[in-house]
Give the backbone structure.
Amino acid sequence: MELGLALPIIANISIKDQLRIAIKAEELGFASIWASDHIIIPQEWKGRFSDIFPDPFIILTAISQNTSKITLGTSAIILPYRNPIIVAKMLSTLDNVSGGRLICTVAPGWMKEEFDALGIPYEGRIDKTKEFITIMKKLWNDELGSFSGEYYSFENVSFQPKPIQDKLEIWMGGNADAAIERAIDFADGWQPIWFSPDELKNKINYLEEYASKKNVEINNYNISLRNRILLTDSKDNGNNPNTALIGEKNEVFEKILAYKNLKIKEVVLDFISPNIEEILETMETVGKELIPEL
């Protein structure tokens, strides 16, 4: 099992400091760095997220030019309020620029107010997500691409550059059983959030059962869990969510190591702290003391 990091979306961490976090993550041996996605935050949701939400494609491009080996990921691109052909071009270009280090997690989105503000219908977003994944894979894989769908159609189009990877993977975000089904049917991996080891084990059982029913081979299937982390001076007193990685260092380490038994690909750490120096200190602690145990 590996450890990744999500660029902070809780506190107003500047873009300059987000780049600093990504560079430090590679130095410390973290396997991946992930950029989240919201174009705007409607007033109804202000306070739940940071006000600073960099464009994921651009921040990952900047990170790619300041690192050399860490995997770059989107977590998760809200696909149905974007043009999938343009997204495919941005991702394939980024894969080339980064030397083939990209993974793309996508999701249908959940914040209706954001869709409304962007002038995009909220209804139909699930079907759009499925169709748009199919479009992107076709453009990446076919010499001349043709597609006829409910939302987009094209015939014999040339699309370059192709991704530098033989297979640029698309993972599905989301916690619901329906998200797991979409992951098996359309994607190359699954990236949920905020599950305890026991909860995740149950979900993996469902994933395996569904894959068996659909005759999909899932040996070494990519499962990547995002979870919140905060190191404190005292043990968790039970007031924090049992899914969160909150508590003193050894307690949090034990919680992370519990996921290793599930044989998942990685745990992606989501910082709760609003302080850049505290974030960097946590990274140092995890990188130097826990990563060697994995």
User: Anything to note?
Assistant: The mean pLDDT is 93. Residues 2-293 form a domain with the TIM Barrel fold (CATH 3.20.20.30). The longest strand covers residues 222-231.
